[in-house]
Amino acid sequence: MDLNASLSLMRPELVLSFSALALLLVAAWRSEAGRLVSILAVAALVGAGAFVISFMVAGTNIAAFDGLLVNDGFANFSKILIFLAAAISLMIAPRFLEKVGAMRAEYPVLILLSCVGMGVMVSATDLVSLYIGLELQSLSAYVLASFVRSDGRSAEAGLKYFVLGALASGMLLFGASLVYGFAGSTGFAAIGTAMDTNVGLGLIFGIVLILSGLAFKISAAPFHMWTPDVYEGAPTPVTAFFASAPKVAAIALTIRVVLEAFGSQILVWQQIIIAIALMSIIIGAVGAIGQQNLKRLMAYSSINNVGFILIGLATGTAQGIAAMLVYLTIYVAMTLGGFVCLMQLKDKEGRYREYFTDISGLSKTRPALAATFAIFMFSLAGIPPLFGFWGKLVVFNAAVAAGLLPLAVIGIAASVIGAFYYLKVVKVMYFDDAADVIAESDDRVLVWTGGVLAAVNSPLGYFAIPALGMVTTFAAKALF
Amino acid sequence: MNAADFPILSFMLAIPMVAAAVCLFVAAERARVIALLATLANLMLGVALWLSYDPAGAQWQFTESAQLFGPIGWKLGIDGISLTLIMLSVFLMPICIGASWHSIQKRVGEYMAAFLLMETLMIGVFAAQDLLLFYIFFEAGLIPMYLIIGIWGGQDRIYASYKFFLYTLLGSVVMLIAMLWMIQFAGTADIPTLLNTDFPAQAQTWLWLAFFASFAVKMPMWPVHTWLPDAHVQAPTAGSVILAGVLLKMGGYGFLRFSLPMFPEASADFIPLVFGLSMVAVVYTSLVALVQQDMKKLIAYSSVAHMAIVTVGLFTFNQQGIEGAIIVMLSHGLVSGALFLCVGVIYDRLHTREITRYGGLSVNMPKYALLFLLFTMASVGLPGTSGFIGEFLSLAGAYKVSTWATLIATTGIILGAGYMLYLYRRVAFGPQVNEDAAAMSDINGREMWLLAPIAIVVLWMGVYPETFLAPIRRDVANIVERIERAAPAGDSKLKAVDPTTARYRVAHEPTEKKAEGSH
Q1: Rounded to a whole number, what is the distance in Å from the CA of B345 to chain A's nearest CA?
Q2: A413 contacts on B by Cβ (under 8 Å)
Q3: Chain B residues within 8 A of A378 when measuring between CB atoms
Q4: How confident is the model at residue B518 (pLDDT cuts 50, 70, 90)?
Q5: Phi and psi (nearest 5°) for A346?
């Protein structure tokens, strides 16, 4: 395949790369260009998304660059989700960053570059391209985490993220080199063929190390320790971004590695995934109980949700993968919505609040905000009739269909522990006495984004089930 | 008869939902009126439903089906059992709204919205014909009830609301896994189809246990009943009425709709477990009720005891027992609801539920004392009231299966008489030791309107139960026929048919069409 054909399959990433570079120039020549660059960056994401959708509609499934990358339904579905989450993160950010004095043009540019990395991640079919995509995404993320340079917590978050991220990348690379050494190739397909015959100890070590590195990136237990600190320290719009787009990319990447490279040896990786999933569910649930900071709470919530998503992967079936994609889609809507609500917690002096005591009795002073936040909390807890229930249902349905009944039973029983702290948020907002520290939100964008996301999470979301089911099934088929 | 052109069940679900949304945005006065009108409209529709239900017609009537949500089918339909429970729900709802008219003063719009949402979900549970749709309605009820207890409840409302939510959630989630397995096995989530699916015996055991975990908590059965006294005591009066009146019936309905006909072999195997727990519940919770100082707690424990009679009746595997269990459910829904209202009446005046703070109320509140007496007697199971019919039938049915279980369960009636009459004596009779209690005014017109309709139905059910038995008879017969193959032998030595009494027997042919509802 010649270079032109390969490049044309990578049009979304090219659009984003050139936009990012061009926007850097704009930023260099215009001072105070943060808002303008943000708007243009959203436009770039829309343009890239249009290409992705056209690929999706055409049903493209072609390898590019001699098998380094692939443009298939799975990659395209993940990209749509990633670009959507990134665009929302861009839209909600400007006013917040202006308030904390950090609205610089680098913010949208870094998000675009991160999106390029994520685009590569979800289409990678080779350990080398996988690593390049992952690092491009991660490096942008490290900078984003410490974006508020004057804030000690933000700097700490960035540094922590960087050091631990480098450790995880090291593990991943070590695993990749072991797999390369024992399988004789870095291409997923070739590794898969090599694993058909026999799996030696070296390969198993390689698989374990690669999965550990990936578990760090998706913040699954026991590699989750960085998550609460980074989520707490990073500026809230950045946290919203971390909890949505990169998580989708890293999970999609994990799916592809596990199924395409190690797929033939399900017994080797299935127990690892099951262990990670259950640990994430339980640690995510138990760890959140004592938290006083709402951002830390959301961090544990994301660990918890990753556990549920991984149950779909443990099945190793097309149904399970489709279920994961459904859950991911709903998860993005839930978690972004949760952060949008957090970003509206601003007191009368204009400072941002993020503790339980600040939202005490919020339903009496800001009923609409409290109601939207409650919807996201119940949805995250997976209580019907909210849409979050459907995500849990499809994942557990896939586990039952694959015969993983003990996993399903333990997982769903552990979800009750998680329900406890989501309920606590509702309790503080609705049952406690009003603290009356939160002022009326002056940010229309946040109010509207929150409202739309709440509508998605409400029972209205059920109307999307047939379409979502069709698209995710199509996407999952690309891997089988 | 079958109003295929008019989706009456969807309307009954939609009216409270729309009204709930409206209530959120209007002032308190308006919200009360809207809620009352919506619940009355639903009561009208319910009466229409009852009048046009044909006990001899198709098993599932008023069926609706639409593919809106992919795998979750919007399938509704009712049989006689659903019909009676839906009637109970729509009958109690306007009373609940009326009971909250003055006692709820803060956040009225939200309160009414929560109750209206609750009504939609309750009707949905009884009308759903799709397993997943049933689960959604069943679980969704937790959210409004959590808010009702937590926002408008008493002192320890937060503890009670958590306990209620997490207890019932933990019970239900395992049932979801079982449901998913059943859907995989049968290839459909359609309840009428699943009712005629034979699951393998070994799987039945596990499925039965998973469903039991949910329904036993909801019911509630001993020893997982502990959430109930807390929730009842802390909930506002109308919340207790709905909780005791309808939510507890979801457990019994679940046993009847799922556990028995879908897993007959497993149900038969677990009869000793169910009877054992029920026997403990009857004796233990009755004794606990006897020593309560808090009126609401006493009635809550009596609920557990009555529900134990329901479980005994359900697992008798015969017509009498199951019919009796349904009548106990209906009767308990009315009577315990009314008793909570009675407590609410005096609580509104004196703001305490402590029994010793009252006394001699029959002197200054004669009308109240009379109605309270009627409901006390109905709770005890006095002939002529609804309680007698149900308890007698279910115990008669139980006798065929296990004489010992019947013996012990029957002590519940004696103990019930004990704690209820003791309660009544301390509240309504005796000297008027508390001056403030002696100065309370008798029930006013509004309270009369709340209690009198329930009193009429309680007497109606006690004197002419055929009205309520006619719609369920054929559906119970269907269930009995379905589970007959697993029916236990029983230890009672019944005579075949005594020729001397045969001439008093009345044949109730299913084809004999009663004009029920024309009363």
Answers
A1: 25
A2: 170, 173-174
A3: 143
A4: very low
A5: -125, 130
What pLDDT score was predicted for residue B513? 43
ipTM value: 0.90
CA distance B273 to chain A (A): 23
Query: CA–CA separation, B137 vs B72, rounded Å?
Result: 12
- Whether a cis peptide bond, with omega within 30° of 0, leads into B220 is yes
CA distance B21 to chain A (A): 13
Q: Which two tokens stand for residue B331?
A: 């009767």
Do strands B61-69 and B72-78 pair parallel, antiparallel, or not at all (unpaired)? antiparallel
* Pairs of residues, one from chain A and one from chain B, whose beta carbons lie less than 8 Å apart: 85
* pLDDT tens-digit map of A295-352: 999 999 999 999 999 999 999 899 999 999 999 999 999 999 999 999 988 888 888 8
* Contact yes or no for B411/B343 (Cβ under 8 A): no
Task: Report CB contact under 8 Å: A423, B165.
Answer: yes
Check A383 against B139: CB less than 8 A apart.
yes
pLDDT of residue B210: 92
User: B174: closest CA among A405, A64, A478, A448?
Assistant: A405
Task: Give the orientation angle of helix A294-315 with respect to helix A226-233, to 10 degrees.
Answer: 130
Number of continuous H segments (helices) and E segments (strands) in chain B: 25, 2
Instruction: Give the SS3 label for residue A438.
Output: strand
> In whole angstroms, what is the distance from residue A125 CA to residue A188 CA?
5
Evaluate if residue A35 carries a pLDDT over 90: no
| Residues of A contacting chain B (CB within 8 angstroms) | 364, 378, 383-385, 389, 393, 396-397, 400-401, 405, 408-409, 412-413, 415-416, 419-420, 423, 426-427, 430-431, 462-463, 465-466, 469
Residue A108 carries which side chain, given as an amino acid letter? P
Asked if the peptide bond before residue A385 counts as cis, ω within 30 degrees of 0, the response is: yes
**Angle CA(B321)–CA(B327)–CA(B332) in degrees, nearest 5?**
120
Interface test with A, best of B24, B170, B176 (most A CBs within 10 A): B176
A389, A431, A465 member nearest B151 (Cβ): A431
Give the C-alpha separation, A370 to A352, whole Å.
16
Confidence of residue A166 (pLDDT cuts 50, 70, 90): very high
B136/A389 Cβ within 8 A: yes
Token couple for B45: 């529709």
- Chain B CB contacts of A396 under 8 Å are 176-177, 180
Q: Which two tokens stand for residue B72?
A: 């979750």
Token look-up 């609460």 returns A228
All residues of chain A having their beta carbon less than 8 Å from the beta carbon of residue B169 are 383, 416, 419
CA distance linking residue A445 with residue B461, whole number of Å: 59
CB B270 within 8 A of CB B216: no
Say what the alpha-carbon torsion angle B316, B319, B322, B327 is, to the nearest 10 degrees: -140
Tokens of B280: 């403990």
Local confidence band at A437 (pLDDT 50, 70, 90 cut-offs): confident
